[in-house]
Write a structure and sequence with these properties.
73% helix, 0% strand, mainly alpha, 3 domains
C-alpha cells in the first residue's frame, strides 16, 4: 500500500469529522485525530499487520465520523437528553390531561348544538380529534425541547429545568385523600360530556341518530339532572384546587350521588326518562324491533353506578375526617 492511499482514506475520515466542527476547534481536532490514526496504524504494521488493513481497521475502530464529530463538539446524540427528558414528560402529561379533554368537550358541544350530525359521527369525530391533538402535543413539545437543548448552555438549562427536590416525593398516606389533576380532569370532562349529550337528546336528535332520552321530559326534571351533574364538577374542581377532599365537599358529593340515583331510578320506573329504544334502534339502523328493554335492570345499573359514587364519597369523608383529627 502506498502512502498516498493511506493518506487519502485518513484524510477523508478527518475531513468528515472536522467539517462539522467550529473553525476555532477544527484544526486542533484534525491534528489530534490524524496523529492518533497514524500512531495506531504504525503500531499495527509493526505487529505484522498489512498497512492497508491496519488503516481500515483503525478507522473502523474510531467509529462513525458523525458520532465522533458530535462528541468532539459536545453536541447530543439524542433527541431529548436526560437533563430535559423528565421535564418534557411532566409537561406532556399535564398538556394531555388538560388540553385533550378540553378539545374533545368543545368538539362534542359544538357538533351537538351546531349541526345535525348523528351521535356516532359526533363521538367518532371526538375520538379522531383526541388522537390528533395528542400527537401534535407530543411532537411539538418534543421539537421545542430538542431545539432548546441544542441551543442553550448550562445557564439556559438552569432557567428552564428545575432541579429535583426531595420534598416533591409523594406520601402514600396522602393518595386516598388528595385529588389529583388527572382525577379532576377525567371527572370534569366525563361530566361535561354527559351534560352535552343530555341537552342534545332532550332537544331532539333528528334523523340519523337514536333518540335515547325522552325529549318530552318535564323541564324541571331536566334542570335538576343537569344541576346535579354540575354540582359534581364544582366539588371535583374545588377538591383539586384545595389539594384534597374536605368533609364538606365529600358530603356534597355524597348527597349529589344519592339524589341523582333516586331521581334517575324514579324517572326510569315511571317511564319518563327513556324512549321506546327497540323502536328507535329499529328506525335508525333498520334492525328488528322484536326485543324489549328491562327498565328494572337499567335501574339496577343506575343504582350500582350512583352507589359506587356514594361509597367513594363516604370513603373521602372518612379520610378527610381522620386527616383533620390528626
Amino acid at each position: 500500500m502506498t502512502t498516498s492511499t493511506r493518506t487519502s482514506l485518513t484524510d477523508r475520515y478527518v475531513w468528515t469529522v472536522t467539517r462539522q466542527l467550529p473553525p476555532e476547534s477544527g484544526p486542533d481536532v484534525a491534528r489530534e485525530l490524524r496523529g492518533t490514526i497514524e500512531e495506531t496504524v504504525e503500531d499495527r504494521v509493526a505487529g505484522g499487520e498489512d498497512p492497508e488493513s491496519a488503516e481500515r481497521e483503525t478507522i473502523l475502530g474510531l467509529g462513525d465520523p458523525d458520532v465522533l464529530a458530535r462528541e468532539y463538539g459536545g453536541r447530543p446524540n439524542h433527541l431529548i437528553g436526560p437533563a430535559y427528558f423528565p421535564a418534557w414528560v411532566r409537561l406532556v402529561k399535564l398538556l394531555l390531561v388538560v388540553i385533550v379533554p378540553i378539545a374533545v368537550v368543545g368538539h362534542v358541544i359544538a357538533r351537538s348544538f351546531g349541526s345535525d350530525a348523528a351521535f356516532g359521527a359526533v363521538i367518532g369525530g371526538a375520538a379522531v380529534l383526541a388522537v390528533q391533538t395528542a400527537v401534535h402535543l407530543v411532537f411539538w413539545t418534543a421539537l421545542i425541547f430538542a431545539l432548546v437543548e441544542r441551543n442553550t448552555g448550562p445557564l439556559g438549562r438552569d432557567q428552564l429545568v428545575v432541579d429535583w427536590n426531595p420534598d416533591e416525593l409523594a406520601d402514600p398516606a396522602d393518595r386516598a385523600k388528595r385529588a389529583s389533576l388527572a382525577e379532576m380532569a377525567f371527572e370534569v370532562v366525563w361530566t361535561l360530556v354527559l351534560i352535552a349529550l343530555s341537552v342534545w337528546q332532550w332537544g331532539g336528535v333528528g334523523e340519523g341518530a337514536v333518540q335515547v332520552l325522552d325529549p318530552d321530559l318535564a323541564a324541571g326534571w331536566q334542570v335538576l339532572i343537569v344541576a346535579l351533574l354540575a354540582v359534581d364538577i364544582v366539588v371535583t374542581v374545588a377538591a383539586w384546587a384545595r389539594g384534597g377532599w374536605s368533609v364538606a365537599l365529600a358530603a356534597v358529593s355524597f348527597g349529589s350521588a344519592v339524589a341523582s340515583g333516586a331521581a334517575l331510578v324514579w324517572l326510569l320506573l315511571s317511564e319518563q326518562l327513556l324512549t321506546d329504544l327497540p323502536r328507535e334502534f329499529g328506525e335508525a339502523f333498520g334492525v328488528a324491533a322484536d326485543w324489549t328493554l328491562s327498565l328494572p335492570a337499567v335501574a339496577v345499573g343506575v343504582v350500582l353506578v350512583c352507589g359506587w359514587e356514594a361509597v367513594t364519597a363516604l370513603r373521602r369523608m372518612r379520610d378527610a375526617a381522620r386527616s383533620t383529627a390528626q
